[in-house]
Amino acid sequence: MDLRFGLLLSASIHLLVIIGVFLYFRNTENALEIANLRLNRGGIPSLYFSFPPESGKGSTPSEKKSQTGSETDEIERLKNEIHFPPEALEQRLESDCSWLIEIGKNGEPKTITTVKSCKYAVFENHFRKSVSRWKFQLKEGTRITVPVSFRIESND
C-alpha cells in the first residue's frame, strides 16, 4: 500500500469518527465540550471525549416503573438474550418452539406454559432457565407468547 494512500485512508477514518461524534451529540448544548480535538505543531493530534456526569447511570427505580415497553419490544429483548445451548450446537440439533409467559410481580415470570413443544428437551430446559432469571418491563398480569427458532446457520 502506498504511504499517501494509507495516510489519506487514516485521515478519512478519523474525520468520519469526528463527524459521527458531532452528529450524535448535535442536540446537546455542550457538544463542543464532549469532543475535544487538540492539535500541537509537530505533535500527534489528540482527540478526547468527555461525557456528562449523569450519563451511563441508567434509570432510577421510579423511572423504571413508568417505563413499560411494548410487548413486541420485550419479546425481542428476551429473544436476543437466549443463546443456543452448546450441547445442542455440538450435536447440530434444531427446533422451533414457543411459550406463553405470564408476568408477575416486579417483572418476574409468574408462569411459563409451552405452546409449541421443542423437538429436544435441551431447548426447553435452556429457555426455562434463561426466562426464570429475566426481569420483564411489562405490567403484572400481562401475557406474552414468545416464539423461538433454534437454528444453525451455515454456509454449507
From TrEMBL:
Residues 69-156 form the TonB C-terminal domain. Keywords: Membrane, Receptor, Transmembrane, Transmembrane helix. It comes from the Bacteria. Residues 53-74 are annotated as: Disordered. The chain crosses the membrane at residues 6-25. PROSITE patterns: TONB_CTD. InterPro entries: TonB_C. GO terms for biological process: transmembrane transport. SUPFAM superfamilies: TolA/TonB C-terminal domain. This is TonB-dependent receptor. It comes from Leptospira fluminis. The lineage of its organism: Bacteria, Pseudomonadati, Spirochaetota, Spirochaetia, Leptospirales.
